[in-house]
UniProtKB/TrEMBL annotation, chain B:
GO terms for molecular function: dioxygenase activity; oxidoreductase activity, acting on NAD(P)H. Keywords: Dioxygenase, FAD, Flavoprotein, Oxidoreductase. The lineage of its organism: Bacteria, Bacillati, Actinomycetota, Actinomycetes, Geodermatophilales. This is 3-phenylpropionate/trans-cinnamate dioxygenase ferredoxin reductase subunit. Residues 407-421 have a biased composition (Low complexity). The keyword Disulfide bond does not apply.
Length: 107, 434
């Protein structure tokens, strides 16, 4: 099972063995990772699951969708080149392990 | 007689508000035992996808669960499913024992009611026929999805969010869809006229038939107990293989009434989520609470994920001995076809509206003002507008109407301190505007 590593804005690290088919957001919320809210459940309505992906992972990920792109422009913490909404990152064996860093604020 | 195993907080209701309340109690540092008891057999799950992704068939129900079993174990939250609480015995200090319909007893020192709402029933001849469905929980959605495999013509009673989301989902499955509603516009309780009118045209463009300002006289019968359509009060007959009723929800207040709590269109709570007994808290679709923003009517019962979550945080703080008023401007969303509606704030009592962008492009927003202060936004396929307004409202800021009217001017960079409204303290998080 792929492992997702979540690093908080304070530097705390949590590693979770994720279920394939779940998103990086779902994996965090189901396991109580503080710093990812995901209030809308993953339908691109709240932008509270913002993460910064590792530069090394960025090019392996699916491209940013149109709606995701617009939502990222309105996140609580300013967007960076590696910003993604974690509800759009689906865990798979092909994608493998991921490392994301959480912003200071989500809402 | 005091039970020997008296223990901690009992949360009755295992949906969005109940799970949030329990999680927030731990975040607030409460160390007492926590039990969450739910009437459904399914582990707590998100409801919004039931009328959308789940109905359209592209979502396994397991993907909707909020929290993993390990989460509940780690947080020492005792989750008990498939038990409907039907009575509560109480002592004057607020502690007591709740009893389920199967006789199981749940002692508590403090009680939280997150019991939600049930669908309002259609009260006409034939409403009990097979082929008449409601949509509130997973079992409803699975039954409706199963029925849809055998239905070609579907009639939906109600033009609110549930009715229209079901209409869009069913239309996407290629069925004939007719919506009948008593009101003269869509989502009339929740959004302003420009959005109602836009969605009317959008649903019609996508092949739905809409009947406004008409009631249901009867559900017609095939002689074998199965619905064949609706007789409307204007004399029209709408034939259908399946009838879906989405005419609102009624708060579940039986337990509150049984406990002698004040009830008035929901369990009456103060801004800290406290009920009239001063010890029990309540949150979510079942409560009538002080409206968290100024200028609208003083109390409200609001059915949304965000309201359930924020009220639950407030109620948890109260049980943990803290005081955290509910002051978060509400927001909600609805997905219908390829149209994303996002609403922030409350447009009630507004005296000015600004349409930003062109509804013809299916991408526009309507901003609402009380005096010169921004109060709400209803955004179609315009998430950036929505997020800018949500953030501005949370920070007590406004956007001058003249700037907002120009869709080329980003709202986020146009916010100003509000001249009339004091900044609303947030129940959590931090202000997001620079």
């Amino acid at each position: 099972m792929p492992t997702i590593r979540y690093t908080s804005a304070d530097g705390d690290v949590r590693e979770i063995s994720a279920t394939t088919g779940d998103s990086v957001m779902q994996t965090a919320v189901r396991n109580g990772v503080a710093g990812i809210v995901g209030e809308c459940g993953g339908v691109l309505s709240c932008a509270t699951c913002h993460v910064f992906v590792d530069a090394g992972d960025a090019d392996r990920l699916p491209p940013v969708g149109e709606l995701e792109d617009e939502m990222l422009d309105g996140t609580a913490d300013d967007r960076r080149p590696t910003s993604r909404l974690s509800c759009q990152l689906v865990v798979s064996d092909e994608l493998g392990d991921l490392h994301v860093t959480l912003p200071e604020a989500q809402e | 007689m005091r039970p020997t195993n008296e223990r901690g907080v009992l949360v009755i209701g295992a949906s969005q508000a109940g799970v949030q309340l329990a999680s927030s109690l731990r975040e607030q540092g409460l160390d007492d035992p926590i039990t969450v008891v739910g009437a459904e057999a399914h582990p707590p799950y998100q409801r919004p996808p039931l009328s959308k992704a789940l109905l359209q068939g592209d979502l396994p129900t397991g993907s909707l669960v909020f929290r993993s079993p390990q989460f509940y174990a780690e947080q020492r939250i005792d989750l008990v499913l498939d038990q409907r609480i039907t009575s509560v015995e109480r002592r004057p200090d607020g502690s007591g024992v709740a009893v389920s319909s199967s006789g199981r007893r749940f002692p508590f020192t403090r009680l939280a009611l997150t019991v939600g709402a049930r669908p309002r029933r259609l009260d006409v001849p034939g409403a009990d026929l097979a082929g008449v469905r409601y949509l509130r929980d997973t079992d409803d959605a699975l039954a409706l999805r199963e029925d849809l495999t055998r239905a070609d013509r579907v009639v939906i009673v109600g033009g609110g969010f549930i009715g229209l989301e079901v209409a869009a989902s069913v239309r996407r499955l290629g069925k004939d869809v007719t919506v009948v509603l008593a009101d003269d516009r869509l989502m009339g309780r929740a959004v302003g006229e420009p959005i109602s009118e836009f969605f009317r045209r959008a649903h019609e463009r996508r092949g739905c038939t809409l009947h406004f300002s008409v009631g249901v006289a009867a559900v017609t019968d095939d002689g074998n107990g199965r619905a064949t359509g609706l007789d409307l009060t204007d004399g029209t007959h709408v034939p259908a293989d399946l009838v879906v009723v989405g005419i609102g929800a009624v708060p579940r207040t039986e337990l509150a009434e049984h406990l002698g709590l004040r009830v008035d269109n929901g369990i009456v709570v103060d801004e800290h989520g406290l009920t009239s007994d001063g010890t029990t808290v309540a949150a979510g679709d079942c409560v009538n609470c002080p409206t968290p923003v100024a200028g609208a009517s003083p109390r409200m019962r609001f059915e949304s994920v965000n309201t359930a979550v924020e009220q639950a945080k407030v109620a948890a703080a109260t049980l943990a001995g803290k005081r955290l008023p509910y002051r978060t401007p509400p927001w909600f969303w609805s997905d219908q076809f390829d149209l994303k509606l996002q609403v922030a704030g409350l447009s009630q009592g507004c005296d000015q509206q600004v349409v930003r962008g062109d509804p013809g492009t299916e991408r526009f927003s309507v901003l609402y003002y009380r005096g010169d202060t921004l109060a709400a936004a209803e955004c179609v396929n315009s998430p950036l507008d929505f997020m800018a307004v949500r953030a501005a409202l949370a920070a007590g800021s406004t956007v001058p109407a003249a700037l907002a009217a120009d869709p080329g001017t980003p709202l986020r960079t146009s916010t100003r301190p509000s001249s009339t409204g004091a900044p609303a303290p947030r129940t959590h998080g931090q202000d997001v505007l620079a």
